Amino acid sequence: MSGGFDLRDEPWIPVRSASGEALRLGLRDVFKRAHEISDLELPVAPAAAGLLRILAAITSRIGRDGDVALGDARVGEHIEDWLALRRQVLGRGMFDQEVVDRYFDEEVPARRFDLFDAERPFLQDPRLVAECVGPKGEANPSGVNKLVFGRPTGVNGAVLFGHHTDAAPVPVPAAEATWHLIAQLYFGPSGQCTPRRITDHRTGSTDAAPLRKTLSYFAWAPELFATLVLAVPRPDVEADWEATDACPWEENLNSPLGPMTPLTWPGRLLTGQFRHAVLLVPSADRRTVTDAYITWATHEPARVTRDPYLILDRRKDGDFQPREADGSRALWRDLDSLLLKTNRREAQRPPILEALPKRLGPMRVRAFGFEQDGQQKDSIWFQSTTPPVLQWQEESDPAMARHIKRCHEAAEDTGDRLDFAAKIAWKIAADATTDTSPKARMRLDARKPGPWASAAVNRYWPAAEDEFWRLATPERIGADVTRPFVEAALTALDEAIGQVSRADIRVARARSRARGILLGLLRQTRAS
Questions:
Q1: Please, which pLDDT band fits residue 159 given cuts at 50, 70 and 90?
Q2: Euclidean distance between CA atoms 219 and 4, whole angstroms
């Protein structure tokens, strides 16, 4: 028996309707009802980041005005024509129901959206059954625990989110397995993997997935329809415009040992850069996944291209790299990089936030991140959404964009100063030999920061966020943006030191010195 879980119609994508109802829909209904959906509620953030790229690729096929689609290369050659087409698609207010059915039922080959199809399971490689084998030709799957992010694997796997072991793996519902399939393809690890044998070529290592340890940003409209249309990247990308564009479910399987297919817009840009190959093993009734193969898909060098949903930060060598996900860093701290134009020297705005239409009403920014290292360690995934802020982009409201930048810089400068001041305070309090005279130069030992710095900083940032949003209004343009953050830092410092400790004369002297360091920011602000 093959097939049995058709992602076009099986309810596997969690959404919330405009009326507030929580639903699960298949791909077909997500597009047919996109204008009635207020939010995507997939609980696995890395899967949501990948799914939105998949949905954007499909949107480029079915988002049409007449016979012209958003993904047509003929209109993509001229950016102004493409932007006009996008406005027309948005003006329709919904996807054409017949176009949606025609894409899923006629334009894509049969069964390509079936999770368990024997010949072409969705986003999987059926050849792994024969190629991931042991020395004697026996099946060598990776295990279902390897598929699901958060489950421990191997003998020394840590038990974090459930008592799962490789000796007694718990099957995963097919819907949830799809989430983790997508997450593996976009955020999977590098290094050792299940070996794959092709002719005499057998290796057990893979490269990191294209989005590993990154943070993706999307323009978030009041309804999913507009969000998906705005998620289609503009055609001003480096791509092969002569080659035919295709997504994995639209074309034949590639040879793992052959050259990579040309990078084309928008399908392969969004869905054609995977480094992992996966195959799910279903239960007899096709409702759960009981095992999985996870291995390498190619060892060809990864393409160098700009992902349209990432902020780029300048490195010390002058080149740019994607901003890495940090579970301890709140989204508001990225806001100036999302509002200011991309001609900034230190950070480049995600291209997906360029040239946004001005008449869509209030739009937010949603971020999906996965804090990881470059190889095997996964720390935490998260998602966050701003209030409506995109009306303050520099192109539309330069004064407000610059005000947001001032607020953010004041918060960051104060946070850095608090960290330094708390370390100085601890050194004075803990080391009786420290020279505390005003002109004395203190050297901090990075190995002995003391407990006050982390305690103070952890208290400061939530308070700083509250102050930031109080300041981030047009009415506060021109206001003193430094003092509120300094006052929040002083409070955080006092709480970190504690009432009892401050009774000690040496601690009191240390606290006074640290407060003076923080208050110095106010003097600098007045001087400038």
A1: very low
A2: 35
